[in-house]
Each structure stands twice: as structure tokens, then as C-alpha cells.
Design brief:
Number of helices: 6
Order of helices and strands: HHHHHEEH
Radius of gyration: 16 Å
Oligomer: single chain
Structural class: mainly alpha
Strand content: under 5%
Length: 165
């Protein structure tokens, strides 16, 4: 049976470019940004769009690793968790966004090969130091995306406010 997996896939796709009740999607947010603004931190303690997208990509890669091998390798303290704007500018926005979209496609493709029973199988989570059902990390990815989508909305409001001053 694939009811739960299909629902998770649909939600992942909707958050990216669907029609959400909350209004904004990653695709709609990206369409309002340019290569310069994605690297701007509107406030000193607020991340840039590029930093957030890089962060989401790292954890999506980590989720792919967990699904493929049964074990992760990263923790919140790892250096790659929050790359600086200086490092990200070297990569460029096109590459950052492309990698983000590639990992999403890979995750969806991998999930399409699974059934609902997979969600109850276990993997070892390096960050949480224990065995967890795959449901934990897969649903966690969706929650993580939504959390940071909200942050993007705030960042974009601040960016517009500073542009108009």
C-alpha cells in the first residue's frame, strides 16, 4: 500500500510549487528574488535566502543518505550546516538552487520506489543518537521545509522594506 508515501510526496511537491492554503511556495518565493538579494542578510542575526536553501539541501542530502544506507553522518554542529554567504557566493545562486531542486527530485524518486511499510522501518540517526522509523526523518523534512518557507517570507518582507527606504 502507498497511501501515506503518496501523500507525503504530494505534500513535498505542493510546498515547492503547488497551490498552498498558506499562499507562498518555494517556487513563488524564488520568482521574487534576484541573484543579488538571495545573499543579503536583512538583519545581522537573520540568515540570507541562500544560507537557508543551502541548509535545507544539506539536510535533504542527509535524508537521502539515511534512506539509502540506514544511517546518517551529519549533526547540527557540522560545518556544512550553515555555510557563510562568502562561501555560497562562490557557488552562485544558480548552482545552490539547482542542487536544492535536484535533491528534492531525488528524494521524491526514492520515495516513489517505497511503500507505506517502509515508513515503519528503522534507521540510525546520528544527530538524535538513536534508531528511529523512517517516518520521523521523512515527515521531519516536510516540517523543516515549511518552517524555513516561513522564514523566507519574513526575510523577503525585510528585503522589500530595505529596498523601499
Amino acid at each position: 500500500m502507498r497511501c501515506l508515501i503518496d501523500n507525503i510526496i504530494q505534500q513535498l511537491e505542493e510546498v515547492q510549487k503547488g497551490k498552498l492554503w498558506i499562499g507562498s511556495t518555494f517556487s513563488s518565493a524564488f520568482s521574487q528574488l534576484d541573484e543579488y538579494s538571495v545573499f543579503v542578510r536583512p538583519l545581522e542575526d537573520m540568515h540570507s535566502v541562500a544560507e537557508i536553501i543551502s541548509h535545507l539541501t544539506l539536510w535533504r542530502k542527509e535524508t537521502l543518505l539515511k534512506i539509502k544506507t540506514g544511517q546518517g553522518s551529519k549533526t547540527d554542529e557540522c560545518a556544512e550546516n550553515w555555510l557563510s554567504n562568502e562561501k555560497l557566493r562562490i557557488l552562485g545562486w544558480d548552482r545552490i538552487r539547482s542542487e536544492y531542486e535536484r535533491t528534492l527530485s531525488e528524494l521524491i524518486g526514492l520515495l516513489k520506489s517505497k511503500d507505506d511499510d517502509f515508513l515503519d522501518e528503522h534507521y540510525y540517526d546520528t544527530d538524535f543518537k538513536g534508531n528511529y522509523p523512517y517516518r520521523f526523518v521523512i515527515e521531519g523534512m516536510l516540517h523543516h521545509d515549511l518552517y524555513h518557507l516561513g522564514q523566507l517570507g519574513l526575510i523577503m518582507k525585510y528585503l522589500k522594506k530595505t529596498e523601499n527606504q
